[in-house]
Design a protein that fits this description.
Blueprint: H1 3-19, E1 23-24, H2 28-45, H3 59-62, H4 72-79, E2 87-88, H5 90-93, H6 110-117, E3 132-135, E4 141-143, E5 161-163
Antiparallel strand pairs: 1-2, 3-4, 3-5
């Protein structure tokens, strides 16, 4: 892994973030450091686990922390940045704010999540841990506490989502 690899990853992440309605942290050296961490985890585990969280090496158990992690949307919406502060909202991107500490949303022990998911039966819709939100524009479904800020498929805003289940 070289600094050029980190630069290339940062450029790809900037493009992807912008198309999803996000921005990358304007502190370039900070963002490059996070990209280097993502690349180290890619080499180590075979996937880009968030460098600010402890990955287990189990792709299924770590799926929620593969960048961009499952918690990014809620963190950016509520706190202005994601947990590691790679993705930021407009206020931080424009320099009118700075990332602040964010409480961890991830369940405390990956083993607990895996053991709960070990059964072969899928939960009935009434027992899902989160409501399901449907984009009224393209039909995208997301199971989470609230709708995404921006639909990752059609880029519709969160007000275009309806509670589906």
């Amino acid at each position: 892994m070289s600094s050029r690899d980190a630069e290339e990853l940062l450029a790809r992440l900037e493009t992807a973030a912008e198309s999803a309605g996000y921005r990358i942290n304007p502190d370039r050296s900070f963002a490059l450091g996070l990209c280097e961490g993502l690349l180290v985890n890619q080499e180590r585990y075979g996937y880009m686990a968030c460098p600010c969280r402890l990955a287990s090496g189990d792709p299924d158990g770590d799926r929620d922390i593969v960048c961009p992690c499952d918690y990014r949307d809620l963190d950016v919406e509520e706190f202005g940045s994601c947990f590691c502060a790679l993705y930021v909202g407009e206020e931080i991107a424009s320099g009118r704010g700075s990332p602040a500490p964010i409480p961890e949303r991830r369940p405390p022990r990956p083993e607990d999540r895996r053991s709960a998911e070990a059964g072969n039966a899928r939960p009935a819709p009434s027992s899902l841990p989160f409501p399901v939100w449907r984009c009224r524009v393209c039909g995208y479904l997301a199971a989470r506490p609230g709708p995404p800020v921006t639909c990752p498929i059609c880029k519709a805003s969160k007000d275009r989502f309806e509670r589906f289940m």
